[in-house]
Amino acid sequence: MILDYKGTSVFYTDQGQGTPIVLLHGFLENSSMWNSLIPELIKTNRVINMDLLGHGQTGCLGYIHSMELMAETVQAVLSELNISKSIFIGHSMGGYVALAFAEKFQEQIIKLCLANSTVQNDSPERKLNRDRAILAVKKNYTIFVRMAVTNLFTIENQSLLKAEISTVKKEALKTPLQGIIAALEGMKIRKNRTEVLKKAIFPKLMIIGRKDSVIEYNSLLKEAEETNTEYAVFPDGHMSYIENAELFLQQIRHFIE
C-alpha cells in the first residue's frame, strides 16, 4: 500500500491479525529484509512492514532524513491504519528510528527490540566516516553499495553466505543516491538516546552480534546494562537476521509472546 506523506509516497504492507508488530529495516535495506520472518509472525500478530524514507519504494523527503523525520513518517502510517499501540523491531538504522519514535510517542510502544543497533550517537570519527561514505557513493555508487553490504557480514560468512549476500546487494542497489546520502546525513546528526531507553517502562531487548563490525560488542553489552535492557548475544556479525537466522527467529518469537 502507498501513503502520501508530505507529497512523498511511503510504501508499506499490513498483514495478519492480533497485536501489531512494526518492522523497521536498516540502512541500504528495505522492507524485503523481513520476508523470511513475516510468515512466522503473521501466525499470531498483525505485521506492519514499511520502506523508510529514501529506501525501497518510499520516496525521499528533502536532503536529510533525520531519525525524527523517519519516526514521524512511521507514525503517519500507523495513524492511517488507526493503530495506537505496537511492538517495534528495528534493525540497525531501524533501531535508531524506533528510538526516535520512543522519544516522541512512548505511549504507543508495547515492546521494543533493537537488533544490531545502538542508543549512542556518532563519535567524531564516525561522523568523519559518514562524510567519507557520502563522497565515495557520489564517486562510484555501485562499488560503494557492494562493498558496504559485504562489510556488514563476518569474514567467514562472506564466503559461506554468497547467495544471501548477493540478494542483499541486489536490494541495496535499488536505494537511490539521494536516499543513501540523506540517510547518512540523518544518522550523522542523530541524538544519543541512552536516557530514552533507560527511562522506558515497556519491555526492551537488544540483539547483539559478537563479531559485529559496525557496533562494538563490548559497548553494546555496557549499553544493555546501563539501560536495564534484556539482551541476547549471537555468535556472528551485524546481519543477525541472516547470519543467525534461526536464533533470530526464536528470540523474536520469545520476545513478542
From TrEMBL:
Entry keyword Hydrolase: yes
UniProt keywords, alphabetically: Hydrolase
Bilayer-crossing regions: none
Gene3D superfamilies on file: alpha/beta hydrolase (3.40.50.1820)
InterPro entries reported in the protein's UniProt record: AB_hydrolase_1 (IPR000073), AB_hydrolase_fold (IPR029058), AB_hydrolase_sf (IPR050266)
Record-level Gene Ontology MF annotations: hydrolase activity
Domain AB hydrolase-1 span(s) in chain numbering: 20-245
Pfam family, one: Abhydrolase_1
The name this protein goes by in its record: Alpha/beta hydrolase
Originating organism: Bizionia myxarmorum
